[in-house]
Amino acid sequence: MIHGTVEPSFWLVARTLDQQVRRSGGGAAVCVYHRGRKVADLWSGERDAAGHPWASDTMAMSFSTTKGVVATALHVLADRGQIAFEDRVAKFWPEFAQSGKASITVRDVLSHRAGLPQIRPLLDRPERILDWGYMTEALAEAPPQLAPGGRCAYHAFTFGWLAGEILQRVTGQPLGEAVRGLLAEPLGLDGCYIGAPAEAKLRAAELIRPKSGGVVGLIGSKRLMSGLDRFNRALGIPISPLLIQSTLMPGDPGDLFFDPRILDAPIPAANGLFTARSLARVYAMLAEGGTLDGVRLLSRRSVTRASQVQTRERDRVLLLPMHWRLGYHSAFTTRGRVRTGFGHFGYGGSGAWCDPEQRLSVAMVTNEVAGGPFGDVRIARLGSAAVRCAALARGKPQRGFFEDREREAILAKVRPA
User: Fold this and answer.
1) Which of 24, 62, 64, 361 is catalytic?
2) Taking the CA of residue 183 as centre, how many other CA atoms within 13 Å lie in the half-sphere pointing to its CB?
3) How many CA atoms lie within 13 A of 412 on its CB side?
4) What is the pLDDT of residues 339-365, one digit of tens each?
5) 64 assigned to active site
6) Cα separations (Å) of 274 from 1, 193, 237?
7) Structure pTM?
8) Contact 308, 383 (CB under 8 A)
9) β-strands 295-296, 329-333: how paired?
10) Which residues of 363-373 are buried (b: 16+ CB within 10 A; e: fewer)?
11) Which DSSP category does 100 fall into?
12) Between 132-141 and 158-171, two packed helices, what is the crossing angle to 10 degrees?
């Protein structure tokens, strides 16, 4: 069963969610804002292995989708004049200047050009990521793996402690409190935690493990990656499998990431606990030029600055041109990139993004972890549906879009928004 509300012109979003949950299992929620209004707020499926239904307030751990939330909090600080993107990280975090890192700027961190994508060399066991002090000290001591300010290389895990420690040093607050004060409270978010209190965890969906290690398991093989690295260097192929491998944790972190204790400590690149509704509100604020429901968090100039592409080259870890902004990447749909869209997707299927040009924001959370190491196509399909619906709402017909009987059947399952 699919539950929630949807405006009739956005019925295709409901159909897409309904099809996805039926096909993949587990549960999920999607929320869409258009022109500052919530036009879809839907959920379906099961929140745990016992078969309990997904509820309106169910949250799910959303992996790298968390990065966009942390970046948005930093943009609020920049809008207030508390940081500048050309500031060196060591200005706020003096210990960070060690080992040749004195020149690294906030802009470098947010555009994945700080030269510190590696996490594997910093850890002796996966559980270290639960210790904020250990991780920030290890990063402060670590030499850059790549030239700071050079080519972009996705900081899959390290982005969180780098950006998060800047946030803590500037605000003087623990990360969770800073995000709550800068974003959750002003926007009235009903579910937004990075490091969750016990009462919030009661609303958390149980993550369902993928059936196999897939691509991540292959990348984790040191012998295989070393061989590929030698092969690529011999042929002059500009891809380093060992660099890619270094961004993953040692050993098998699976048991840790599917253990409820992963939600206790803040891991601001990976363990945000969100409702789709809260993520959509954050990005709706950005889509509306920094204001939502009469609350202004950013100036229009700050939103424009946040959305400017910093690099169009292929990322050295993801091997795709991500068009990194300041803490965000391009918005992808199954119909291609959204030209002026930006946000962040997460491993396992979650994601959130906005497009100020269309005044559109889309967010999805799920507990059915699937796809490759950097997400799958479910959020892309939902985004495609939302874009097509927004075009229809603007009076731009989409040939072959509506099937009247199917539309009526879907709308009969949910309440009009």
Assistant:
1) 64
2) 32
3) 6
4) 999 999 998 899 999 999 999 999 999
5) yes
6) 21, 7, 40
7) 0.91
8) no
9) unpaired
10) bbbbbbbbbeb
11) G
12) 100
